[in-house]
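Ticket #4471: structure export looks truncated?
Reporter: QA, pipeline team
Priority: medium

Steps to reproduce: submit the single chain below to the structure queue and open the exported record.
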Amino acid sequence: MFVSFPFRKSLKAVLGFTLAELLISLAILGVIATFTFPKVLSAQQNSQYKAQAKEVAATVSVAHQNYSYSNSVTSSFRFGDLTQYMNYLSNDVSGTIDDKYTQASLSCSLSAPGGCLVLHNGGKLRFTNDPLAGTNSTNAIEFYFDPNGSYSGSTNGPDKSAQMFIYVGGRVTSRGNTLPGTIAAGNTYATPDTSFEPPWFNWN
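Actual output as written to the record:
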């Protein structure tokens, strides 16, 4: 005698998904991955670059503090005066890095002291021989930080350098956070301008 049980599973439940259902599921996952992975990777890279820039800002500020312990910051003060208080791998005077956002490239070949400091975090810090040229609170020396240390070959790529400034008192800012009326390398920056910040950078 044949007995039918109420909890008997259907044939489809026993066999699982069909091949067509699996292919459709994989296709959907592929589409999601195509749009998601690049954004995740970009966010991770931006986070890394931002951390590098903040590390550089702190390093430059501490170097200024150490310099100030035994020296007066005068109008002839230059970025080269800080390098002896900084930990870096070498001074590159022949390479090329990215310029600030929406610009082209910057050469590391400059009159000494100058060039690009090759840093332990993989980036390069480019500085010039320009003096502070004044001791007002808005006098500053500009420098550039390229997080990957090389020219990307594009005029508006994600690896663009951050333009930064160190002031008389040791404060370090970026172009988007300059003090109104900042004077550096003969240029006057009337107001902060975040449009010159690279896409990977912010102080948050």
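Status: closed, not a bug. The export was complete when the record was re-opened. Leaving a note from the reviewer for reference: Residues 16-196 form one domain.
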